[in-house]
Structure formats: structure tokens, C-alpha cells
Design brief:
The protein is an alpha+beta fold. It has a single domain, classed as 3-Layer(aba) Sandwich (Aminopeptidase). It contains 6 helices and 5 strands; from the N terminus they run αβααββαβαβα. Strand 2 (68-75) and strand 3 (81-91) form a beta hairpin. 26% of the residues are buried. The protein binds acetyl coenzyme *A. Acetyl coenzyme *A is lined by residues 42-43, 103-108, 113-119, 139-141, 144-145, 147-148, 151. Acetyl coenzyme *A binds next to strand 4, helix 5 and helix 6. It comes from Lolium multiflorum. One of its GO terms (biological process) is N-acetylglucosamine metabolic process.
Length: 165
């Protein structure tokens, strides 16, 4: 009988960890109904995504395979998502065609903060970047989050520049 194939992204991301009743796993197509938009709204207020828009973007990102990973933390008891974060693997020419992990959009639901969930998600994203051979992981954050990211080993380097359209 044919065996189900392991999802390489899920296994690299260490899906299945359920310490504290939260399971950190890759984003799934059905997560729009588990509070994913509510989480994103805590990062940047915006109109909720339609299901079509979510599924279209999900499919686009899925085509990038392990070069774009969105992790979520699902609360086992309620099935709701309590945290999310993403890492994008950039393929460079410099550094002998090296790769860099960009950590983005880390958020923990306001009701679940202060329990180590944010740190666990960021550690998983960093592990994923390391596992993809990245020589560094980088991110932009507000000055007051220096201490949070320092817990995972990030150090302040350079300045962030932005040009918004
Ligand atoms: C790259 C980006 O995405 S930047 C955007 C980051 N996201 C946001 O700002 C959205 C709103 N904020 C949040 O979602 C959350 O507050 C987060 C993600 C910043 C932190 O998530 P939490 O789950 O509450 O953090 P967690 O409990 O894992 O904290 C881990 C450690 O960092 C510390 N920490 C948490 N927040 C901060 C902070 N703002 N400053 C200093 N230390 C902090 C905690 O005290 C804890 O330390 P301890 O182990 O010594 O007790």
C-alpha cells in the first residue's frame, strides 16, 4: 500500500511540537477559519482577507516551497491560532550564491503573550533558515523589541530604510 509522503517543509519546520498545548506547524489552507486574519490584524490593522484572496496567496507561496515558510501555533484545546511568523529565503549571488533568511510578520495573540510562544516561533523560523543553508537571519523591528529578539540571539546591526508606495 502506498505510504503518505512526509511534507518536507513541515518536517524541516519541526511540525508536531505541542508543548504547553500549542502545536507549531506550517500554515494550512483552512487556517483562515482558525483566526489567522485576527492575528495579522494585530500586526497591521487592515480589512479582513476574503477566502479567495487568502487561498490565492496561499497557492502563490506554496509554489515557493521551503523558500517561504509561514508557521502558526495552534491551540490544541480550541483549534484557534495563537501565533504566527514567516521566513523568506533570499537567494543571493554574493557569498558564493549564499542564502539569507528574512524573518517577517511575527505575532502572538494578545491573550497568549508572555508565555514564550513568540520566542518558540522565532526559534523555529531561525532553525528553518539555518536548515536551508542560510548564512544569516535578519529582521526589522521596533526599538522596543530589541530585547525580545536578543533572547533568540539577534544583535542590532545597521539601520532600517523604508520607502512606502
Ligand atoms: C520581524 C517582526 O515581525 S517584528 C513584529 C513583532 N510583532 C509585534 O510587534 C506584534 C505585537 N507583539 C506580539 O505579538 C508579541 O508581543 C511578541 C511577538 C513581540 C512577543 O511574543 P510573546 O509570546 O509575548 O513573547 P515571549 O513570551 O516569547 O517572550 C520571550 C522573552 O522575550 C521577552 N520579551 C517579550 N517582549 C519583549 C519586549 N518587548 N522587550 C523585551 N523583552 C521582551 C520576554 O520577557 C521573554 O523573556 P523571559 O524568557 O526572560 O521571560
Amino acid at each position: 500500500m502506498e505510504q503518505p509522503q512526509a511534507d518536507p517543509v513541515a518536517s524541516e519546520a519541526g511540525a508536531g511540537d505541542d508543548a504547553d498545548g500549542y502545536r507549531i506547524r506550517p500554515l494550512e489552507p483552512g487556517d483562515i477559519s482558525k483566526g489567522f486574519c485576527d492575528l495579522l490584524a494585530q500586526l497591521s490593522p487592515s480589512a479582513p482577507l476574503t477566502e479567495d484572496a487568502y487561498r490565492t496567496r496561499f497557492a502563490e507561496l506554496a509554489r515557493l516551497g521551503a523558500d517561504h515558510l509561514v508557521l502558526v501555533a495552534e491551540h490544541a484545546a480550541t483549534g484557534r491560532l495563537a501565533a504566527a511568523g514567516a521566513v523568506l529565503v533570499e537567494r543571493k549571488f554574493i557569498r558564493r550564491c549564499g542564502t539569507v533568511g528574512h524573518v517577517e510578520d511575527v505575532v502572538v495573540d494578545a491573550a497568549a503573550r508572555g508565555r514564550g510562544l513568540g520566542e518558540r516561533v522565532v526559534r523555529r523560523l531561525v532553525e528553518h533558515a539555518r536548515g536551508r543553508g542560510c548564512y544569516k537571519a535578519i529582521l526589522n523591528c521596533a526599538p522596543e523589541l530589541r530585547g525580545f529578539y536578543a533572547k533568540v540571539g539577534f544583535q542590532e546591526k545597521n539601520v532600517q530604510m523604508g520607502l512606502y508606495f
